[in-house]
Amino acid sequence: MDMMTNSPTIQETGHGDHPKPTNNSNNRPSARFCHLHPDILYRIASKLPPKEFAKTSILSSDWRWSACPRLTFDAAAICKCRREVLHLHNRFRSYYINEVNGVLHIHQDKLVETLEVKVDFVDSILLAHHIDTWVHFAVSSRTKNLTLDLKPKRFSEYDDRYVFPFQLLDQESISRLQHMQLSFVSLNPPSQFKGFPNLRKLHLQTLHINRKDLENMLSSCSTLEWLCIDRCRLDDELIIVDSPLPRLLYLRVHFCFTKIKFNAVNLATVEYDGDFIPIDLVQSSKLQSANIRFMTATFQHALISLLNGLPSVQSLTLQIRVQYIQKQWLWDNPLKFTNLKHIQLVMFILLEDVDKVLYSLAFFRATPFIEKLEVHFAGCGLWLAEAGPSRKDLGQCKYVHLKNIWISGFKAAKGQLEFLLHLIENAPALEVLLVEIGEYPPFNSWFGAGGPPIKKAMDIARTCMRPILPQNATFDIKG
């Protein structure tokens, strides 16, 4: 008997026939979910996240799944311990391997769209053979999304990478792959290998690969939309991909190359973290956002390089961990950022450059259409520092589109104050000014019993800035 008197009932037919719904008291035909054909149920449930997929067995006492189209084998989760300590105990590795093999055996001859293997590759003799078997399973299971995340926590201590078994792939499986992550892998593709023609997302991390092989592989991925190259070791660290990547929207490079050049006309976002190198994305005329973090560079040199390589960028974030500033008023580069409207600068001011802060303003001669400016200062020598030139030495430079200024890490150094006063005096359309006093990023510093001179810095900001602000501009100070 049904728990609800008006619940629908189904008159079942023979095995494989469609159920025949009966009308309830209101003559509304209906059917029980659990009486759908198993293949239909499997397809519906396969769209759920893995944990939710597993819970579907409670819907019916007769509904028990023997397969899941998305399989993730995270060693830390399976062995219930931190991933980096797994290699210390053979029993953990053996347990993990047995668990993976057991689950894959159940899924033999089933469609598995996503296969993820996450384990530290610290025992190449034991693991390599099994991973080959798992890749072969992915080929036979028509896998579209493959992850081999094999990077140990201290990966620099290990030389042996997992050698990717190209010999196990046929043209059909190569064409089927859409998403792929390879971490701590060695790639040595055969001469006839022509790349992954339908790959949309590719994440390469701590790889060993020949520069020419990488360029050839990327040049053949014409459908690529998302690309991350992270700490990959090449024989030659120059990377130039001249072949068009018309669908590439996102590019991230982390500590890899000495020069980057891509032909990606529709690229929307680029992120770079590493040494100061040339980045050539001149073809990317639709570039919306660039987030650039250099280890060491001279401020003016870095910005000129980005102007030459990213001339069409609309929003630019620049952070230089060890930053130097030149005493230079003139901006002799004839190019302009014609689309740049938002700039975020994270400026670590060395003690020796406290008196040079104002010289960084020369860069803004190349940003005629800037609307929003964020500058986050960091530097222990900035508190009430009195050294540096006056804004009168800079000359006139109007910022007619500038509407929003946000300055953090303000410590009332002369360079900071002159920097802000110059901007305010030359921004007739300014609507919002936010000044945050103190450290960037915020942290507790020891200044003795009196603490940092926050109140004095706030008084200086109010006294000097409020009188020259446009009449309707909003001014907010936070300490």
From TrEMBL:
Transmembrane parts of this sequence: none
Annotated ranges, domain At1g61320/AtMIF1 LRR: 103-437
SUPFAM superfamilies linked to this entry: RNI-like
Pfam families according to UniProt: LRR_At1g61320_AtMIF1
Domain of life per record: Eukaryota
Amino acid composition bias (Polar residues), ranges on this chain: 1-12
Start and end residues of each stretch annotated as Disordered: 1-29
Protein name: At1g61320/AtMIF1 LRR domain-containing protein
Taxon lineage: Eukaryota, Viridiplantae, Streptophyta, Embryophyta, Tracheophyta
